Amino acid sequence: MTPQLKSARPLIEDHALIGDMQTAALVARDGSINWLCLPRFDSAATFAGLLGTDKHGSWRIGPATPAGAPAPCADRRRYRGETLVVETEWDTATGAVRVLDFMPPREGHAPQVIRIVEGVSGTVEMQSRLSPRFGYGKRLPWIHDTGGRTAAVSGPDALWLDTSVPGTKKDAIVHHAFTVRAGECVAFTLSWQPSHAPAPEAPDAELALALTTSFWEEWVEHLVYDGPRHEAVTRSLITLKALTHAPTGGIVAAPTASLPEELGGVRNWDYRYVWLRDAAATLSALVRNGYIDEAVSWRQWLLRTFGGDPQNLQIMYRLDGRRDMPERELGWLPGYEGSRPVRVGNEAVDQLQLDVPGEVIETLALAHAHGVARCESTEGLILKLVDYVREHWRKPDDGIWEVRGGRRHFTHSKIMCWVAADRVVRLVEQGVLDADLRELVSLRDEIHAEVCERAYDATRNTFTQAYGSTELDASLLLLPHTGFLPADDPRVVGTVDAVRRELAPDGVLVHRYQTDGPNVGRDGLPGGEGAFVLCSFWLVDALALTGRLTEAERLFEQLLSLRSDLGLLAEEYDPVARRQLGNFPQAYSMLGLANSAVLLSDLRKAAAVPVMAA
Ligand SMILES: OC[C@H]1O[C@H](O[C@H]2O[C@H](CO)[C@@H](O)[C@H](O)[C@H]2O)[C@H](O)[C@@H](O)[C@@H]1O
């Protein structure tokens, strides 16, 4: 785990995630909530301080500080057991205090953020500074007291603040100064409502805490994983669940937008959408660990979203299945540590990424294998997806990494086309699907032959990033997992070793592809980026599947040490600055961890040799 870091602005990994499975907030170590989009993950942020300063919206509760002095970072924090309730604690000269932060899962009520201040020892002077700035930090609210409550209203949005403590207002900021003694509790609740609607009921903070705690404890009870690093797997799965949108079954890639892949750089993207690829991988991790209901909801989401028209497949959608997410720059936000532009929306929506049908089909097949009941419509959808592959697989595409440098014949995309055909062949053989087996086998074999001929560099004994290219690509680490060739085939082992050699200079942290030297700008973007956390877990899996289990276990432990003190991982990691980078927490990274843990545990059991000491 990373040590407790203190800096003027919080590091990415300094944030805790809280959420209600419709949206999420980030709580920094100084007690500030500096990211929250209401009412949904992809709504405009009400607190956008993460991508700017406090003046772009934040809500801090913590020990009082003199005006202008930096807010003190907490001395300790943790999730309360296996829940999404975070406890942040400060020791001060006069006593100790704890703040509990959480968002109750919505049971027909308004979205709520609840903060309970508990006196632990002595007496502590506290402050609450609530500064809502709707529209990603742009709009000042009209703040007023009504019926003993405080409302902050702007355009369509209204926030309602309830607390027993008297407050003041200045410059569209609500201030509370109060004292908490050992054993005392002071609650603050914030509810969102459309501004035209009547005021929502004030939440009962203690009841909400009890319900939220039991929701997460009951959810975790269904986890079937019983291998090593149980706590890391549990935290990963809780995080993945927090990224699912309960009403629709959609899953966001991450709850944030524009956290940079390079500090000060331009690689800043909005991840608050449902990528079919990321969602399929998230579902696979959940299903493997006993979570079936989420797979059923996601299957319905797929059918609603494109079941009637799979030939017009997009690679991503909004949570409710809408197809539009125009990319735009928010010029008024300075960006995380100056990383501009801040973008919302995502232009990659119009890309052709031919790996996607294979990923969706594979996850649906996995769900079936784990006991999700058959569904005729889904079976029809799978057949239409394989038709899509048949029609498009010969085309160049934009690839798994969504490069913006032009289409190529990416090897990973072709291999995933093979996966699509292969998994459907198996489902037909099992009698689950009814289709022309001969045609499917011929499609599968044709793709296989072409990839082996055009994507394999015999002189270096490695598959390459694209047909005829010399570059390598971390997505090739998935080769042993796909079954495209036997894991012990020399071409597979050669590829795993070549990728590790060229893309993981330290042998641990894997880059997606090279962005330096002659490769600058090849992906259509200036600058570089960190190591990609998911690819590093893929290396663990690839080593394990190619017979190097002990080495894989060692690498896995090294990767676990990159997690934040709360067990969270962003999309990327900067090996030089030793900091997390990119959107946070990222489903890809959390699911990579869970999948590697399960694989290592299964292989270790099969080898019947004790796990090496951590
Ligand atoms: O690197 C350029 C691209 O980066 C983003 O894509 C990445 O995030 C996606 C969501 O997690 C993931 O599916 C993809 O594999 C990643 O490369 C960004 O969303 C793109 O707009 C951008 O072109």
Task: Characterize the structure shown.
InterPro entries: 6-hairpin_glycosidase_sf, 6hp_glycosidase-like_sf, GH15-like, Trehalase-like_N. Its EC number is 3.2.1.28. GO terms for molecular function: alpha,alpha-trehalase activity. Its cofactor is phosphate. With 614 residues, this protein is an alpha+beta fold. Helices cover 31% and strands 20% of the residues. It contains 14 helices and 24 strands. The longest helix has 21 residues, at 587-607. Mean pLDDT is 96; it is low at 1-7. Bound molecules: the ligand OC[C@H]1O[C@H](O[C@H]2O[C@H](CO)[C@@H](O)[C@H](O)[C@H]2O)[C@H](O)[C@@H](O)[C@@H]1O. Ligand LLGJG24Q binds next to helix 4.
List the SSEs and their pairings.
Elements: E1 16-19, E2 24-27, E3 32-37, E4 45-47, E5 58-63, E6 76-79, E7 86-91, E8 95-102, E9 112-131, H1 134-137, E10 142-146, E11 149-154, E12 157-163, E13 167-170, E14 173-181, E15 185-194, H2 205-221, H3 230-242, E16 274-275, H4 276-288, H5 293-306, E17 316-317, E18 328-329, E19 343-344, H6 356-369, H7 376-392, H8 411-429, H9 437-454, E20 456-457, E21 462-463, H10 479-482, H11 490-503, E22 531-532, H12 533-545, H13 549-560, E23 572-574, E24 579-581, H14 587-607
Antiparallel strand pairs: 1-2, 2-3, 3-4, 3-5, 5-9, 6-7, 7-8, 8-9, 9-14, 9-15, 10-11, 11-12, 12-15, 13-14, 16-17, 18-19, 20-21, 22-23, 23-24
